[in-house]
Structure formats: C-alpha cells, structure tokens
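ARCHIVE CARD
Drawer: 12
Card no.: 0347
Subject: one protein chain, sequence and derived structure
Cross-reference: see card 0346
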Amino acid sequence: MTLLVRALRPDNTPDAEAFAAVRRACVPAMLSTAGSVAFDLTHAHPDAQYRQLAAEIDGEIIGTAQVGIAYDSPEPGQGFANVYVLPERRGLGAGSLILRTAEEHLADNGATTFFSWVLDEPTNRAFAAKRGYRASRSAHFLRLDLTAGLPPRQEPPAGVELRTGAQFGDDPRALFELDAETVADEPSDVATEFTDYEHWLAETWNHPLVDRELTSVAMVDGRPAAFSLARTDDASRYASGMTGTGRAFRGRGLAKLAKNDSLHRARAAGFTEAFTGNDAGNEPMLAINKWFGYEIYATEVRHVRELG
C-alpha cells in the first residue's frame, strides 16, 4: 500500500470526478461536480496560489484538500486548508499527510495563519487539536425538503420588482457591487473585500454551478437591493450561494422575498432538495431560513493555527 499526496491535474477528468466524489461523500450539503472542480482550479485568482490536493492510495483518491491564500482579505498572511478524507479510509495517514503538504504550500507563499473548516465530530476536532489548531467560530449546513411545501409566494411591495439573474446577462456589475457589500458585512474570521469585477465575473458569475435563471433579485427604483444567488448541480439539488441585502434596504424583508421567489421556481423546475450555509452567529439569516423550514443538516467548526 503506497500513500502519496499530489496536486490535482486540471485536464484530467477522472481526477476531477474522484475529487468531487470525495467532497460529496464527506460533505453532502456542498454541491460539487467534476466540472466545478476543474473550473475552480483553472479560474482561481493567481494571488490565491490555489491548489487542489489529492491523497491517493494505490491509484485511488481517498482524500482531498482545497488550499489557498486569502488574497481578497485586507489582512495579509492568511491562508486556508480544508481537508476531507473518505470515512471508510480514515486512519491510514492520508489526513496527516495532506494537511502537512497543504501547510507547507501555505507557508511557502507567506501565510502565517492557517484556517481550516472541520466537521463538528469528536474524531475530527481531536485530529485538528492534535495538530495545533484551536476552535473558532462555527457554521451550519441547512437542508430543506422542497417536496414538503414552501411558504406561499409573496407579492412584491409597491416600488419593488423581482427579476432573475438571467435578465442581467453578461453585464451584472450592479450585482457585483451588491455582492461585495453583503460579503463585507458577513460574519467571518477572515474579512473579505471584493474589488476585482473582472475576476468576480469569471470566477463567480460564470461558474458552472451558478444558475442565473433561478437566481432572484429584488429591485428598488431600478437598483438591485437584495438577491439570492442560486447554484445547482447536475442532479436534483439546489443551493443558495449567497443571499443578502444592501445596507440601505435592510429591514424590509427583501432578502426573504428574493429567496422565496428563487425557491419556488427551483421546485417548479424539479429540484427536490435545497441547501444553504449560515454562520452560527448570523441570527437574521438563520431566522429567515427557519421561516422557510430549513433544518440543521451538519455543522462545521472553523479552526485556526498561527505559526511561531
């Protein structure tokens, strides 16, 4: 039995398929396909020094890691390494080797603080603690059974119009500005600033999992005020990539309006499961998702290790 860790080959379809299969097995609530894996690798920002690592035993990929620098954070020196190993193949050293390889890559590229999402299970948390990581904030994956019903559709209030993402075509700059504003206010250990429109267009708007037809945008006086970005895989699963409201429009129920519209149209299109993710401290969004009927599906705890 030979264990090795290597970088994923971007032009190798079997690699991408195996990588996606590990991700789906370990974190079913996160959409992942061979196409999205390849896209993420080839469209990552150069400053991210992004790598996808695979732990392999005798030609079989049993573990994965997404590794990179938080280049879009105003605070330098931060990196991430999210490691997953197939449950039935744990205990063979794959997790340790892939994490060590990831940390070496981050340190070589100037990172002094490493962040890692760890599934909230005793063995996983013990693995992280043994390697010098301390627990930080937590986040929930939530699931909604779209076949079990939804709150009724809501009519937009006076002065509000609902549009789909597809109606913005290839010029969604106004959505980029709204996304940048909402992401900046999202609870997180790592602050994020979106400043590169062209890269957002390539990496986010044109991502193969983004479904523009099911993305909903609430407009006020012709300006995007709230949105719910839809992501879908090649099966029957839908996920909310981001839902948010611009600062000037908060407190009016516009995010709920947009997300409800998107969910109804997703169900009509044949999707049967909806997933989303929330920081455990994001009470407003958790309340909205509870209103829809989402239930906690799994929890991850972000861990951090500082060099020195």
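Annotation on reverse: The chain has two domains: 3-111, 144-299. The helical segments are 13-26, 34-42, 94-108, 122-130, 173-184, 197-205, 254-268, 283-292.
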